[in-house]
Amino acid sequence: MVYELLSNLNDYQIQAVLDDSPACLVNAQVGSGKTTVLIAKVFYLNKVKEVSFKDMIVLTFTNKAANEIKERIKNFDESVDEKEMPYFGTFHSVALKMMRTILPVEELGYTQDFSVIDPDEEAEIAERLISTNGIRIKYESKLRRRLELAEQGKFLYANMKYEDDIQTLIKWLQEDKIQQNKMSFNDLINNAKILAKKAAYRPQWIIIDEFQDSNEMQLEFIRALAGNQTKIFTVGDPNQIIYSWRGSIQNVFSSFKNEFNANELSLPINYRSCTTILEVAKCFLVSNSDLSGLREQGSKITIRNHYNPFNEAQYLCDSIADIVSQGNQHKDIAILYRLQRQSSTLKDAFDKCGIPYEISMRKTLKDIQVLAWFISLIRFSVNNNDIESAINVITNIKYGEHFPNFEIKNEFKGGD
User: Fold this and answer.
1) Are 59 and 234 spatial neighbours (Cβ–Cβ below 8 Å)?
2) Average pLDDT in the 364-376 region?
3) 106-137 pLDDT, tens per residue?
4) How would you list the strands of the sheet with 263-267, edge to edge?
5) Which of 252, 271, 290 is the last residue of a domain?
6) Do 43 and 134 reside in the same domain of the chain?
7) Are 202 and 91 members of one domain?
8) In a 10 Å sphere around its CB, with 0-12 CB exposed, 13-18 middle and 19+ buried, how is residue 131 labelled?
């Protein structure tokens, strides 16, 4: 089975799979088959080195990536049950699973049935604390961002010269979350890190996907999980740092290599893109000297500069009309843009020109009012300390009672 997997890999990929260094850093160029390598690594460790899946922690940055890895493992070996892979998942899901099972969260004042809240819900708690306690917070409209920065130790924001009460707010916020038995996403990593240092469980291997997006808190989590005999295998692309806005480390590769004396390997062969795209990409990539591809040349790339978004939108309308006149369909055309606000100009132009379109937007349960209200109701039913859910249930305009929001908040002030 493993040898069948290895037979489909190139020499660079095989070298990564067989590497047995205490720490290994694999620079995986885009389209180089890094997920295939990661899965082959897991199978190699399990089938050849006889490392149990339960003795591996495999960390990813998205649920989609985590599910893909588990599904491909189960598809390749139908005898594998997902229960055998308890610590295969995102950083947050693995931290959550460990605190639900093997880490003593009671030491931090929580019970194992704690709730997990998103950044918006955390900001709601902070807003209540500000309102009921008269805390002085500047740039309150940017509160969610300020909380994120404060957790990274950055207490000044924008052009602030002097600190406000953000540190006091953070302290009260943590106390309030413990009282309500709630953890934010950052709490999951931070609390698991604290508890993991004292835990008996030490994995034989820690495998990390998309390593370039790791931030300092996640690296501390990895350090806390690793024992003296734990080996660390990381895969990532230094050209794809996309989470710098939330603290990913620009030089995480060099930091990891220096700290762990990691063996550095590379996957330079691209299987996804045509030669034309790779040649253009080399102009922008940080590390590109060994990037090569196996596919055909491909069509030429046209770069067109526009001086305002309206000219750009009209150009796209004309281009789409030309493409359709050649026998193509509108559904075969895709437009990618960087910022959501760019879509409004495009929508106006397409409507004017009669071009059909569909905008892909992520919709969550919170966007469906009745479901958001019902979720708050369920949360308060299972956790009577959940003040924010109680407030959301009672003050909902359509489904709640007609009490002024501030009166309800005062009723719950201090959690009474």
Assistant:
1) no
2) 79
3) 999 999 999 999 888 899 899 889 888 888 88
4) 88-90, 56-60, 205-208, 231-236, 23-28, 263-267
5) 271
6) no
7) yes
8) middle
Beta strands 115-117 and 263-267, pairing class: unpaired
258, 131: one domain: no
Quote the crossing angle between the two packed helices 119-133 and 143-151, to the nearest 10°.
Answer: 100
Q: How far apart are CA 388 and CA 379, in angstroms?
A: 10
Task: Quote the CA–CA distance of 276 and 268 in Å, as a whole number.
Answer: 16
Q: Which residues of 190-205 are buried (b: 16+ CB within 10 A; e: fewer)?
A: bbbbbbbeeeeeebbb
Model confidence pLDDT, tens digit, residues 67-89:
999 998 898 888 889 899 999 99
pLDDT at 365 over 90: no
Domain ranges, residue 11: 2-104+190-271
382 & 348 share domain? no
Last residue of a domain, one of 157, 180, 203: 180
Q: In the numeric block, which tokens belong to residue 246?
A: 């939330």
Q: Provide mean pLDDT across the span 155-174.
A: 83
C-alpha–C-alpha distance, residues 40 and 4, integer Å = 10
Helical residues (DSSP H) of 262-308, grouped into ranges: 275-281
What is the spatial distance between Cα 24 and Cα 261, in angstroms, rounded to a whole number? 9
Q: Do the domain assignments include residue 24?
A: yes
Considering all CA atoms of the chain, what is the largest pairwise distance in Å, rounded to the nearest integer? 69
| Chain-centroid distance, C-alpha 4 | 32
Report whether pLDDT(6) > 90.
no
What's the DSSP call for residue 59?
Answer: E
User: What would the pLDDT profile of 251-310 be if each residue is shown by its tens digit?
Assistant: 788 888 899 999 999 998 887 777 777 777 777 666 555 666 667 777 788 888 998 999
Tell which residue, 194, 172, 173, 171, has the closest CA to residue 99. Answer: 194
- Of residues 61 and 414, the one with the higher pLDDT is 61
**Distances in Å between the alpha carbon of 386 and those of 117, 122, 129, 366, 404?**
11, 12, 14, 17, 19
Residues 87 and 125 both lie in one domain: no
| Number of domains making up the chain | 4
Q: Which residue has the tokens 């039913």?
A: 381
pTM of the model: 0.79
Residue 360 falls inside a structural domain: no
Please indicate, yes or no, whether residues 56 and 130 belong to a single structural domain of this protein: no
Rounded (10°) angle between helices 185-196 and 91-101: 60
Contact criterion met (CB below 8 Å) for 405 and 391: yes
Q: What is the CATH number of the domain that holds 217?
A: 3.40.50.300
pLDDT tens column, 204-238? 999 999 998 888 889 999 999 999 999 999 998 87
